[in-house]
Amino acid sequence: MLGGIGTAPAAWAQVAPWQDQLRTFATCVGRLSAQMEWQWMFDGPGSEETQRQRAGIIELLEALMPPEQGREVLAWRVEAKMAHAYLLTRATFGQDKRAAQRAERLAVRQIGECRSLLLS
Predict the structure, then answer these.
(1) Which of 24, 6, 10, 16 is nearest to 80 (CA)?
(2) Distance of CA 13 to the CA centre of its chain
(3) CA dihedral 77, 82, 88, 91 (to 10 degrees)
(4) What tens digit of pLDDT does each residue of 66-75 get?
C-alpha cells in the first residue's frame, strides 16, 4: 500500500502539531472521496488510482486518530467531500466559464496537495 508521508510533506510533518495533521488527512480523505465519485461518472479508470490513494490516506488517518475524535474526524471528511464535490460540479457544469476554470484549478491543486502526502 502507499503507507507514508512523501518528501515535501515530511518536513511539514515535523513541525505541524498532530491535530493539524489529523485534520489534513481527514480533509484529504473527503476530497479524494468526492474526486473518486466524480471519476466514476466521467473518468472510470482514474477512479481506481484515486481509490488506492484514498485508502493510503485512510491508513494514515486511522493510525493518527484517537477513538474519541471519530465523530469530529468524520465531520471534517464530510465537509471536505461536499466542498470538493461543489468545486467539481462548478468546474464541470458551471455556466460562467471563468468561474468554472477557477473551480477546476482549485480542485486540481487541492487533489495534488493530498496526493503529495503519499509515497508513489
Answers:
(1) 24
(2) 17
(3) -130
(4) 999 999 999 9
